[in-house]
Every structure is written in structure tokens, then in C-alpha cells.
Amino acid sequence: MRSHQWLWTNLGIKPVTGWSVDPFGHGSTVPYLLAASGLKGTVIQRIHYAWKQWLALKQYGDFRWVPSWSPSDPYGSILTHNQPFDIYSIKHSCGPHPYICLNFDFRKVQGEYTEYSLKAQTITDKNVKEKAELLLEQYARTGSLFPHNTVLMPLGDDFRYNVKEEWDQQYTNYIKLIDYINSHKDQYKAEVAFGTPSMYFQEIIKRYTQYPTVKGDFFVYSDIFAEGRPAYWSGYFTTRPFMKLLDRELENTLRSAEILYTVALNNAKQNKLTSYSKILERDFEKLILARRNLGLFQHHDAITGTSKSFVMRDYGLKLFEGIRDTINIQQNALQSLVFPNIPIKPDQNLVLSDIERESYEKLSRKTPIQVGPIGANQTRKILIYNSLSRPQEHVIQIRVNTSSVKVTDSEGNDVIYQVNPVWDMTDNTNLWIAADEFEVVFIAKLAELSVTSFNLVYTTSNDDKLATIYCKKCQKKTTILNGENEVKPDILKSNFNIKDIPPGDIQLENNKLKILFNGNTGFMKTVTRKHNPKIMQCGIQFAAYHSAQFHSGAYLFMPDPNEREHEKTFYNSTKIRNLL
């Protein structure tokens, strides 16, 4: 939508047609989003070859695409054109015969040696009739796949029209073919013209008013043209998962920032909070940049993780910048709403996020909040923001520097809470309890679109709030950092009550469920619903497959065809940390 707004603001143009011929499949929300953004039609290409075959057989190449959750033809559907062949290059677009279509890619650039530059001949008065009839034959075959006999033929490819010669070569040769065909309408019963996808939709609506509806998604994408056997494009679902995580994180922080920013800026202007107004107005540029960075990453070779490593690094830096800036915007907005009477200073925040990330390559981590017996650290205010339009009940987990702490609400009333240990896992054989970091856990009831405050208060009488720990191979001592920042076991015994896990299976339950876990593997064995005491048996198994050598990569799910068993169980014994 940001791009649509830019086009309208700067050029006065509202897009009405979509062009999405390269993404590897399409989700069922796509028609809804496109229709909601004002588009009237869209063009797609990469869908399963069986879908293409079925659409061609039924002459359903143009259809109304309906979201899976909607009735047959509601608001939210969009007129969709499926390009009937495998890919959008000229070779695979003019008709069903690629090596005939090569005759009609007229790019000839000095120094380039390609199959089309060898095949295509410049159109002259001597060969125009032959070439026109050859092209029309392909157009006619393509037109037979549609009820209206109208053809949309793309004229391009990746990395094309990057030299001025190609513009002249393609146009000059095609205009000769077009003029010849159009001057012999009585003979060929055809008319050819340069056009746009919007013009195509306008034309077919004149010829054919009722279109079939197709409901749902176009996953998974599969083709067979590359190697002569099906290739399933689902490998990218799990390619570079960390980058996909960053994308979701930026989506979250951006949405939260936009809501808080809107409320805070209007509040600052209405109440003449000059210092806050200036800071928030400056933050608008950061908000725009974060939107652009998130939008950029939606590219089908970005969020899929299928770009080259240096390109993915650039994406990662942009996502990291967006996350950092949107968190900063939230901090400024919250400070203006919670502390309006305290003037804000640049880069001097009273409100700070408890999550920090050093770089896009590292996981985020929680910063311990300093709580102490004297001074300002005796009580620390915690702000929890619910950006949803419905009430929420959340388990809040906060890191603190001491176990001597309790939780109160904004009125000073005690809140039920628990103090958990933070585990040091740097030792591969043992688990140590950190001596200078703890986790406070409590349940917060949050109103819709609200900011709720709680207090962390220093206390010396909360031994009953320390969790009882059941584990294997964990030490009953704590760890500290020495002068070289190396973790060393402290001689002091931990304040937590640590017990060995009894032999046998492990059972967890609440007022609704009783769940039994295998004591050796940690995998779930049975589930019992308390309102219906029937025991449901569960089985969990992990497996792996070997990819076909040199053929799988970032895009494809392609197991090795020479293996008799495509799935190999690789987890059938106790190999996990026995920490529960």
C-alpha cells in the first residue's frame, strides 16, 4: 500500500492491474488483498502444472479468484488471468512450441551468444509473410485455451531492455509483423496490437462477461519443463528460517509502532507537548523507512531466502535497521503518553525495551532489569502494550538481576508471580544456574489497545516464590563471571530447591488437560481431556531425507530418487537435554 500511496501522491495514478508472474505459488489471501487495494484484475503464472493442464482443458484461463473463506463471488474476489505456459520468457510465451517462439525474440547485442540471437531473423519484406503466419499459428493455439480467443503475449524476460538497441530491435521487427497481419484481416481473421494487461482485461470483458470461480490457494508450485520430471518448489518454505523470523519480528514492531505513533503524535499536538511533537515528527522518516524495508523483503526472492548471500546480507541489515527504529519509535511514543510532563531529550529515554539485538545475525536477548535495595532501583515500572483490539491474558517473562523481587500492579496491589532460574548452558555436560540473572513470571490481564503498568519491587521475603526445579545433570550451585568474562561455578549453593527427576514418565496437568511425556525422550505419549477421560495415544517421530545431489538447493523439495526409503528416522533414542 505504501507504493500505491506514493503513486497517487506523486503521479496521481491508481493501479488497477496486478502482475505477479514470478512468485512460486500464491496464497488464498492474495485475491482479498489485491481487491482491497483497488485492483480489478491480476496476472499470475507459476502454479502447479496440473492446474495449468486443468485450466487449459476447461478453457478457464481467466477466472474470478475467490478467498477460501468467502462465498462464491463476494467482495474480495478478483478477475485473474493465468499465463498458460511454463514461464514468462518470449521463448515460452508466444505459444506451446518454445523453439518456434525463439524466432520472435529479436534481441541481438554485440558480444552476446544466445539461442534466440542465433534463431531469430530480422523481419524483411521477403520473410514477413512466413514469419507472420508462423507467429499467428502459435497465437491461435494459445487462444484456443480461452473461450474469448484473445491472447496476452508478454514480450520480455529477466534482465531485458537494459540496452537501448533491444528497444529498437524488438519494436521494429514486431511492428512489421503487426502491420502485415492487420493489413490482411480478411485473410487471417486476426488483429494484433501492443498493449498492457489492463487493456487485455478490458478487451475480454467486452467479449465474455461470465467467468468461472476458483477458490483457495495455488500451493505448492510444481513444474516439469526444466528436467523432464516434476520439481516441487516447497524447499524455500524452510530456506534461511532466521531471515523469515526477522521479517515477522519487523512486522510486529512496525504495526505496534504505527498505532502508538498515531496516538502519541495526536496527543502531543492536542496538549501542546512541543518537545515530544518535534521528536515524533522526526520519527516519521524512520517509520517510512521501516515500511519500505519490510515491503522490499516481501519480494519472492527475499522472504523465500533464495537470493545470493550478499543480497540476503543487505536484506538482513535493512530488517535490523527497521526493527531498531520501530522499537525506538515505540519508546518515544510511550514516554510521551506516560510521562508527558517530563520533557524528552534526543537519545535520552525514560522508557526502554527489555529486548536488545546486537546485529541481524544474532538472536535477540532480554536485558536484565536492575532492582536493588536502595535508590531508584527499589521500584522499577514495567509497561506492557497490547496492540490488539481485544483483551488479552498473557504470561509475562522478565529478566532481573536478583531473585529478591516481587510484582505489584499500578495500584500497589500484589500480583501472583514466580521466580525462575536462568540456565547457563555453556557447559555441554552440566547445567548451571546463573547467579546474577533471574526470570520473573506473572500473568497480566491487558485491556484492548492499552498500555498497562506493573512494578518490580525489591523485597527480602519471597522465598516461597522461588520455583522448585526438577532436572537431570543440573548443578545445585550457581555460576558467576570472573574478570575475563568466563563463566565459573560459584561455591555458593543456589537458593532454588533443586530435585532430581523421579524415574519413569512425566505428567503435567491443569484443569482441562493431563499430558504424559516419555521420561527418556521427552516426547508426548498420551493426552487426556478431563471432561472426557478417554486417553488419546500420541506418537512423535522425527525424520530426514537426503536431497538429490546438485538438484535441490534453496528452492526445491527434491529427495534423492535413488534412495529406497525417502524418510530416515534419525531420532530414536535419548539425545536431548533432560531439562523440564
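the 2nd protein, sequnce then structure:
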Amino acid sequence: MKNHIQTMADHWLRPLICLLIVMSTQVHGSHLIDITLLKSAVSKGAVCLDGSPPAYYFQKGSGDGANNWLVYLEGGGWCASHDGCEQRTRTIVGSSSLRKGATFFGQIMSSDQTINPDFYNWNIVSVVYCDGSSYMGDVEGAILSGGSAGGLGANLHCDGFGALLPSASRVKCISDSGFFIHAVRDIQTPYFFLESAFDDHQTLREVANSKSTGIFIHSCYRHGHFYDKESWANSPVLGDKTIVKAIGDWYFERSSVQEIDTQNELPQNCTNHA
């Protein structure tokens, strides 16, 4: 009887596991992306807080996106003391050795054209954030982007990133919930600011002096969009544009995008906003 129950359990469990794997793949709209460890960088002093090598996840582009790049700098806050940094060495924001060997790319990094219509076939790099300090070829188009602490990293390195790609026809930067007024005033490279109005958006008016500057400031109570499926799929709409449409129109210069929600003075719950 016991063997019969075990056989029946195996009979149902294995198909269920396979089904869950298929469903997971369909939900993410992408395949697993393996981590790459830069072991050669250790000898040069480029290491995570625990001494492990820097790392990134890379998805190769294809078709008309094969020569375009989107580089995403992960966020994760900062450490400002020896004890604080030491504590981070036991977490994924202080050690690449604690990272998953593979991950899914979603939202602006998804290879699913229905989710990410403008950048789905680009070369995508997600740089592992593990130093606690905002990250102190033949390319046609490139984007340097980052969220939160990574957004500050994108601010600080935007012009330097552009200088590394002098032959690229279009180089731009995106800050996802990582706006710092003193870090962006002198940026020359076209920049897109994606923020909640409750991440101190008022200061953005000081930098909205060029059509090359993209702005999408909504009133949803959110911090971060690119790694949050809910924020990406249920995007607020400003000027008839969702977040994905606004970024695509700005990058490809289909139209200027400087949208700020001035209708709502209080934060909105946009969880179920379609």
C-alpha cells in the first residue's frame, strides 16, 4: 500500500513540477540568464565587499538589436561605516558568491516583445551591485540605466559612459528612482528621469530645460520600476503614455517626453491601475 501511494505521488508530482517550470518561464517571458564572474578583475582590486569577484548577467542581442546595448546597474543602498559594510558581506549586495547562478530578465530587460517592444532584442547587461558605493567596441545605440543606488551610479557615470562610445549613434541614460539634483546638473548626455512624485520631484524642474531630457513623474507610491513586475505591467499613464511607451518614444526620438502628474497631491495606490 505504501509503495502504491508513493507511486501515485510520483505520478502526479513530476508532471506538476514540469507544469510549474513551464508556467514560470511563460510568466517571466524569458529564459534563465547565467551569471558571469570576472575573476581576472580580482588581481586589479575590483572586488565586492567580501573580496569576491565582480559579476554580471548578460543576454545576447539579436536581429536589428544586435549592435545595441542596455546596461543596468542594480540598486541596493549604501554602507557608510566599517560595521555597516562588513554586515553587507553576508548578503547579496556585498558578495557575488551569494548570488544566484542564473536569473530571469523581466520588464525593460525582457526578451518578450509583448512586454518590452523597443529593447527586447538588445544586448542586455545587468551589473551585480556588491560594493556598497554606487559603482565608484562597435556600438550603434546604448543605454546606461540604474535603479535607486544604481540610479545614482548612472547619474555619476553617464557622461563617462558616453565618452567610452564615441562612435555610437545614440547614447542615453535612464535613472529609475535615483534622482540627485547635485549629480545631474552638469550632465551633457541625454537623460531620462523615471520617478514617483514622492521621491522629491520638485527639483526636476530645474533640469527640464532641454527636449533631450526625458521626464516621467507619476503619483504612485513606488520606488523602483525596472525590477518590479507590478510597476512595469500596471504602469500609470501620463500624456497617453505608459512607462514603456514614454521611454521608447524618448530614446528613439519619436517625441519629446516631459510628463509630470500635477493632478494628484497625495500618493496613489496604483497596484491595480491598468
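The chain has two domains: 1-30, 31-260. The radius of gyration is 21 Å.
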